[in-house]
Amino acid sequence: MPYSKKSSVKIKIKNVLRPLLSPFAHRIRRTSIFKKHLIPWLIHAETGCGEQYSEIQDLKKKLKSIAHSGKPIIVGPWLSEVGFEVLYWIPLLRWIADTFGIDTNRLYVVSRGGCNQWYAGICGTYTDIFEFFSESEFKEKNEQRISDTGGQKHLFVSKFDKEIIARVTEKHSLSEYELLHPLYMYELFRFFWRRRLPISFIEKHVSFQRFKIQSAQDILSRLPEKYIAVKFYFSACFPDTPDNRTAIKHLLRHLSRNCDVVMLSTTFSIDDHDDFHSDGSNHRIISAADMMSLRDNLDVQTQIIANAQAFFGTYGGFSYVAPLCGVPSFAFYSRLDLFVHGHLDVAYRMSRFLKCGHFDKINKTGTYNQPPDKPEFTAFDIHNLPLLETIFKSENKDDITLRSAS
Fold it and tell me: Domain of life here (predicted)?
């Protein structure tokens, strides 16, 4: 066969030339011309983003310097959205710790709402911001931070950040420390968010791992044996409109026919996302608001999700937490034009990685690897609810199982 003969000849030529050329290639790769000019040119030719190469390398040098300093490292403080924290910040921290060989006992993680279980494995010491500030104080200072910096994103070390860091260093008697601030994440990943780098750049700089959530018995004892966790709140991609409120009520009515529903809405008001609250008229819809305090609300919500049959809620935030807890997640939006689609792509890839152990759905044998007991993430336009209801309608409306009981 002509093709096979040509292929065989090519392989033989490569086998002869490779050992002869390898020493020269190794020397060329170590030259400054190759590093400073040829690599950026090759990256630019492939992705159109070679101009970012030097900035990315400088950022990595800073991270390496922090990692190798030997000093305690304050990680945070994290003051922004849940979605960015679990989809980017925590996976990046795992990658940094693994890549630069950081002893996790050096890491002093600072966040809020009792979310220390999210940081298990990379957190030597966790400190909660609500240990130092009340709800009103936090809201006032964080709103001032947002006003000073121009948004929720951690693009700068703000005055509020410095105040929190001062409290943390005093609490733990840290005279010397390094600061691993979220601004490094925003500086590194902004090239992807601005569509200057492909999603493979994110894959190479994150390490996704399932959360290992320990559930408190006093919380479990107050929950039904089987239930669906629900958290709807209003955001840019899911605004507070009559249509959206009607759709939520319709969905809750449908879910509660077959299963108990636990609502994760809180009574706190610390950001610009207002939770949807059930009116309490349906006895199968249970509010978890009285199970939470400001200090532990994220932890309690996570524990409830981790023991649920499935999660339904607004796209973003806790819809990412569910698959990280091994729970199927069904996320809804109504304004496709008002969120960055790159985040949705990362969420799908996170789910794929948690199911398959790699970002490719095709395993080495070439078969589709989708174990039935692994978490799934799916996002819907809520306007399609009537269509979905029609598709999945059955003669016996009680025979729909969202998640097989373990």
Answer: Bacteria
C-alpha–C-alpha distance, residues 237 and 110, integer Å? 28
| DSSP output for 136-200 | HHHHHHHHHHHHHHTSSS--S--HHHHHHHHHHHHHHT-SS-EEE-THHHHHHHHHHHTTSS-TH
Distance between CA atoms of residues 123 and 89, nearest Å:
13
158: left (phi over 0), alpha (psi -120 to 50) or beta: beta
Q: What are φ and ψ of residue 18, in 5° steps?
A: -55, -50
Domains of the chain, CATH where assigned: 52-203 (no CATH), 217-391 (3.40.50)
Residue 288 CA to residue 368 CA, distance in Å, equals 39
- Between CA 41 and CA 36 the distance in angstroms is 9
Cα 140 to Cα 145, 255, 344, distances in angstroms: 9, 38, 31
* Tens digit of each residue's pLDDT (9 = 90 or more) over 17-43: 666 666 666 666 666 665 555 655 555
Residue with token string 């996790």: 104
How many Å apart are CA 313 and CA 12, to the nearest integer? 58
